[in-house]
Design a protein that fits this description.
By secondary structure, this protein is mainly alpha-helical. Helix content is 74%, strand content 0%. 37% of the residues are buried.
Length: 266
């Protein structure tokens, strides 16, 4: 299952890379250059010139750490008969996404090239859509057609960035709203205190990510600390924690569902 989901997650990403390479999104508006980051060059004596934003660079390894950790947790839960095949599939794909996102964001920070900036934006959308898919699958059961259509809608929706409107912000906002809506529906059907706590924490991290990224430069003017540990750097911590809490939320929902199913079977 782990290797199957690896390729199933990698294939759409490779397709996105190909479309970006073919310059289909050459006119997509993205922020490029160190002027968009509050972090100032530091530790240049010890580090190579291309690593002029060390904190914003290193933090991206956190995506890989969280993704790898939850891949291991998923495998362990399969061995302990906590997850069935469908549930393990949902967790594997979500955390392969996290693992794959790490090098994309890392390359964007290091190179500041348009292609990696586009991929960074684009790869964000399926993250939230997979939460929607996971919730719909837990609530209504497996549907291959629903999963394929949902992912296609998520991927294709990025073309909105080519319109003369804040397309990415609108599309991302809709994805976030859909994920929150489905998460609330999950909690309504399988309520438990732990899931509620992790849902709230994930929402706080989501808001923190948005706030810290938008006010990166303003925070830098408040105190010298935010010139090193910048708003952008802190926003990535929120983003990584958001993925972690989303996993914990879904885990507790599934545990509650499995417990309820066992009671009914008895």
């Amino acid at each position: 299952m782990m290797f199957t989901t690896f390729f199933l997650t990698l294939c759409p990403l490779l397709l996105m890379c190909l479309l970006v390479y073919l310059e289909m999104f050459k006119s997509a508006p993205v922020e490029l250059g160190s002027k968009h980051y509050a972090e100032i060059p530091s530790m240049t004596i010890f580090l190579p010139e291309w690593l002029n934003m060390p904190f914003n660079t290193v933090i991206n390894l956190g995506y890989a750490v969280v993704g790898a950790m939850w891949l291991a947790i998923t495998s362990n839960n399969i061995d302990r008969n906590i997850f069935d095949e469908t549930q393990s599939f949902l967790f594997y794909v979500f955390n392969w996404m996290a693992l794959f996102y790490a090098p994309i964001q890392l390359l964007r920070i290091i190179t500041q090239e348009h292609e990696f900036a586009v991929l960074d934006q684009w790869a964000t959308l399926p993250f939230f859509m997979w939460v929607v898919i996971s919730g719909a699958t837990i609530l209504n059961g497996w549907s291959t057609h629903r999963i394929i259509i949902s992912i296609l809608i998520s991927i294709v929706s990025y073309v909105v960035v080519l319109l003369p409107i804040p397309g990415f912000e609108i599309t991302l906002g809709l994805h976030i709203a859909a994920a929150i809506y489905v998460a609330r529906a999950l909690y309504a059907k399988y309520p438990n205190k732990m899931a509620k706590a992790f849902f709230v924490k994930a929402c706080i991290c989501c808001l923190g990510f948005i706030f810290l990224k938008l006010f990166d430069h303003q925070l830098g003017r408040l105190h010298l600390t935010f010139k090193y540990l910048s708003g952008h750097f802190l926003s990535k911590i929120c983003d990584i924690l958001q993925i972690h809490y989303a996993n914990l939320f879904l885990l507790n929902i599934i545990l509650t569902k499995n417990k309820d199913s066992k009671k009914k079977a008895e």
